[in-house]
Amino acid sequence: MKASKTVYVCSECDYQSSKWLGKCPQCNSWNTFIEETYTASQKSSSSKNKNQSAIRDREKAVKFGDFEIPDYLRHSTGISELDRVLGGGLVEGSVILIAGEPGIGKSTLLIQICGQIGDSCNVLYVSGEESKGQLKMRADRLGVNSEFLYVLTETNIDGVLNEYDRIKPDIMIVDSIQTMYCDSSASLSGSVTQVRECSSMLIERAKNDGASVIIVGHVNKEGGIAGPKVLEHMVDAVLYFEGDRRYPHRIVRAVKNRFGSTNEIGVFEMGERGLDEVPNPSAMLLDGRPMGVSGSCAVCIMEGSRPLIAEIQALVTPTVFPAPRRTSNGIDYNRMCLLLAVLEKRLGLKFSSYDVYLNVIGGLRVDEPAVDAAACLAMISSLRDIPVPDDVIAFGEVGLAGEFRSVASVEQRVNEAFRMGFTKIALPKRSAIKNESILKDSGVEIVPLAGIYDAVRLLREKESSNSSDFD
User: Fold this and answer.
1) Where are the alpha helices (DSSP H) in 70-214?
2) DSSP SS3 for 1
3) In this structure, what DSSP letter does residue 341 have?
4) Contact, 372 vs 307, CB < 8 A?
5) Whole-angstrom Cα distance, residue 151 to residue 333?
6) Dist CA 360 CA 330 (whole Å)
7) Using CA atoms, how far apart are residues 206 and 164, in angstroms rounded to an integer?
């Protein structure tokens, strides 16, 4: 038997080196090299089998005009919020990767899917982390007792595929890919090589047999999916399970989807009976919003094709530190600093002697520039202790000159704001002109904003002397 060989593999780009490196020369990532051990005989045998299989199954090229668009069969998960993210359901022969932090609710969601579709389709649930007893306890708590649901507790990928061949399921769930290992590789389960090899075998089986495969992936400390980066390119869809365990709200976000739109989200609420769908996320995010309080402003953001009403709160208070504190939650910290610089320069407001805390209610993270207007109004409102009118909602991007730039999806934002009871909508002047024909029949008052000077006029004055603060 030939001696084992040790190589170091980058977990981000699969670059291989004979020695450990602090920085990957290919992707420039730091501390990503993992030691892998394999034998030359195993490698050559595996490569030989793959080459022979590729030669046998090689297809011939055909003219582009000789084939038609395939009619993909979709299986509904029985959960409308998840179907929205997937683009209509699970596509036959697709491979979906779901990633999220430990304890966020991935396994709970998958068990609920099994309960919804297990009475009409054969489902194989493969667990490498929990025993059959633990799965049974969770299923009983969620009220899942499907007729065609099969459970397998196995970590060897060859044993998993053998059971797959015996049962012939329509849908297979693997929880999680980091616990699976292949005998052809001598490295430990969860390593770059094992994750890549096991994923390749599952993807090949799904494409050949037409089964839908759902793979659960762990995340690393940076929040990315653990394992090789190529895994995200191999699968058909990548879903991120987001949320804070201190909050009941959970968001499933699609960052890649070959059979639907990307950046779609599904909103859930964690309860005693598992994850409950939230068909009206705007009402959930606005629940408990204080009225007549300074430092609060509503904003309409777009998550994929869905408009959401969120609340941005700011707290501006005199600092006791040599350097004022800046804290943001749900909004990019650098974006908040940029907006503060614009307000100081263009309006002369001295935020440099105040601590500023900015927060998006509900644990929601927003990254589109349309939140600039609401964030600026909230910070000015808190600084001057002048409440933003409760019926006002604002959205728009703020430039460095203090001007408001146009945003997309104005009609959807306005309709959602009107549905939630807002009667005055502040938006960039250019967006109001471009959508004038649509906005005049919307039933709300449109306030066009040319610059940051127009935005401060929306603040409700408590005393007549406050009007001189912005002159």
Assistant:
1) 80-86, 106-117, 132-142, 157-167, 192-209
2) coil
3) H
4) no
5) 45
6) 5
7) 10
Extended strands (E) in 33-155:
33-39, 74-75, 90-91, 95-100, 123-127, 149-153
**Nearest C-alpha neighbor of 98 from the set 1, 16, 177:** 177
What is the structure's pLDDT at 219? Answer: 82
Q: Write the single-letter amino acid at 444.
A: V
Tokens standing for residue 346 = 């263009």
174 backbone dihedrals φ, ψ, rounded to 5°: -115, 115
Distance of alpha carbon 406 from alpha carbon 398, whole angstroms = 9
- For the chain, how many helices (H) and strands (E)? 14, 23
In this structure, what DSSP letter does residue 454 have? Answer: H
Count other Cβ atoms within 10 Å, centred on residue 148. Answer: 17
pLDDT-wise least confident of 35-49, 54-68, 253-267, 424-438? 35-49
The DSSP output letter for 350 is -
- CA 46 to CA 167: how far, in whole Å? 27
Q: Furthest-apart CA pair in the chain: how many Å?
A: 91
How far CA 168 is from CA of 57, 118, 123, 235, in Å, comes to 21, 14, 9, 21
Q: Indicate the Cα dihedral angle 421, 424, 427, 430, nearest 10°.
A: 120
CA–CA separation, 255 and 330 (whole Å)? 18
User: What's the rounded mean pLDDT across residues 138-147?
Assistant: 88
Percent of the chain with pLDDT strictly greater than 90: 40
C-alpha–C-alpha distance, residues 199 and 143, integer Å: 31
Separation between Cα atoms, residue 158 and residue 363, nearest integer Å: 41
Query: Rounded to whole angstroms, how far apart are CA atoms 217 and 301?
Result: 29
Question: How far is Cα 250 from Cα 266, in angstroms, rounded to an integer?
Answer: 8
The gap from C-alpha 381 to its chain's centroid, in whole angstroms, comes to 31
Q: Choose among 304, 226, 280: nearest CA to 419.
A: 280
Question: Tokens at residue 122, please?
Answer: 């054969």
Query: What amino acid is encoded at 61 in this protein?
Result: A
Residue 406 structure tokens: 């146009």
pLDDT of residue 44: 45
The dihedral built from the CA positions of residue 46, 48, 53 and 54, taken in this order, carries a sign that is positive
Locus of tokens 């068990």? 111
Between CA 148 and CA 155 the distance in angstroms is 22
Distance CA 350, CA 426 (A): 25
